[in-house]
Design goal:
82 residues, mainly alpha, elongated
Length: 82
């Protein structure tokens, strides 16, 4: 028997785990690829996402690539998620 809200709690936990993984990926790419060409940033982001098993839609990937390519500082990845 499940208690009310259990499914919601599990969904929230999964979403938080996904956000934490994405944050680690973006932080990694930011630290390694600062001032790198946009294509290199995109390749490294894709490689890191693949390593942790995350899929992002193209629009989100591009927002992250632009952020890193512009030499931006650390940021909370929630701002990229729609």
């Amino acid at each position: 028997m499940t208690t009310p809200g259990t499914g919601d709690d599990q969904a929230a936990e999964l979403q938080e785990a996904r956000v934490e993984s994405l944050q680690a990926v973006v932080d990694r790419v930011l630290s390694w690829q600062e001032s790198a060409p946009e294509g290199t940033v995109r390749e490294e982001l894709d490689k890191a996402l693949d390593e942790v098993g995350l899929d992002l839609d193209d629009a989100t990937r591009e927002r992250i690539v632009e952020h890193v390519h512009e030499g931006a500082e650390h940021t909370d990845v929630r701002r990229f998620l729609s």
